[in-house]
Write a structure and sequence with these properties.
One of its GO terms (biological process) is L-amino acid transport. By secondary structure, this protein is an alpha/beta fold. About 35% of the residues lie in helices and about 25% in strands. A hairpin with a 2-residue loop joins strand 4 and strand 5. Helix 3 runs parallel beside helix 6. The longest helix has 14 residues. The structure holds adenosine-5'-triphosphate.
Length: about 240
């Protein structure tokens, strides 16, 4: 077994008196896509946000998370990002009033060479639209910008939250293709509800239920077990056998 890129132990998050995560432990392999699954509201986004130091001020985080030899919890976000933890939030958070080029420029980190060639090789569309305001991009294009922005810098691990949410089926496929290529060079911890995308991308799966890890293992094996998938994720068998 290769050393994991991320080891989370006993992660607990309490927000406004609610115990959202209660001792979550899992690892992320140093290559490929690990998918974080679970029913709506189980705490997937809360997990990613805790790892990148974005738990709200009234929240309390306990436990440990190691990226290689680096301890993540309790560190400010800007320092985590500088150490190679990339985060693509669920709401994409592009600057609507700025152009594509300006959004990318803002993501550049001091002291490292921005990899525009890498970004434009993956997303030629961003190059063509560099002078367009981000707010006027389609949802899929904004998602590409949100991912491209993170890839301007070198990363040791990417956290990607529901990148296909709200996108048309054709665009979902495009985003999945892009993530597949991204994951060839950097490990990804992905929150994703679309099981066809999970089937295409994921090697390992971590399933949350009731604030804890309910299942970990091979993602393809999980999806092959219809009853297990249904009980863990609450989805119908039609969705499982897409
Ligand atoms: N700032 C907050 N204040 C109060 N409750 C919160 C806060 N953030 C999250 N929660 C609650 O924590 C629980 C977990 O939310 P989270 O967004 O992590 O779930 P999720 O698994 O990502 O859900 P979804 O799949 O619906 O996006 C939810 O019940 C949510 O309402």
């Amino acid at each position: 077994m290769m050393e994991p890129i991320l080891t989370v132990e006993e992660l607990s998050v309490r927000i406004a008196g609610l115990h959202i995560l209660q001792g979550v432990s899992f690892t992320v392999a140093p290559t490929g896509v690990t998918v974080l699954l679970g029913r709506n509201g189980v705490g997937k986004t809360t997990t990613l946000r805790a790892l990148v130091g974005l738990t709200p001020r009234n929240g309390e985080v306990r436990g440990t998370a190691q990226m290689g030899n680096r301890a993540l919890l309790g560190q400010p976000t800007h320092r985590l990002v500088r150490s190679g933890l990339g985060y693509v939030p669920e709401d994409r958070c592009v600057f609507a009033g700025l152009t594509v080029a300006e959004n990318l420029r803002l993501a550049e980190r001091r002291g490292s060479t921005p990899a525009y060639d890498r970004v434009f090789a993956l997303f030629p569309e961003l190059d063509r639209r560099s002078r367009q305001r981000a707010g006027s991009l389609s949802g899929g294009q904004q998602q590409m910008l949100a991912i491209g922005r993170v890839l301007i810098n070198d990363n040791r691990l990417l956290l990607v939250d529901e990148p296909t949410k709200g996108l048309a089926p054709k665009v979902v496929t495009e985003v999945a293709e892009v993530l597949e290529r991204v994951a060839e060079s950097v490990p990804v911890l992905l929150v994703e509800q679309n099981l066809a995308v999970v089937r295409r991308l994921a090697h390992d799966a971590v399933v949350l239920a009731a604030g804890q890890v309910a299942w970990t293992g091979n993602a393809q094996e999980l999806l092959a077990e219809t009853e297990l998938t249904r009980s863990l994720l609450g989805v119908g068998s039609a969705e499982v056998h897409h």
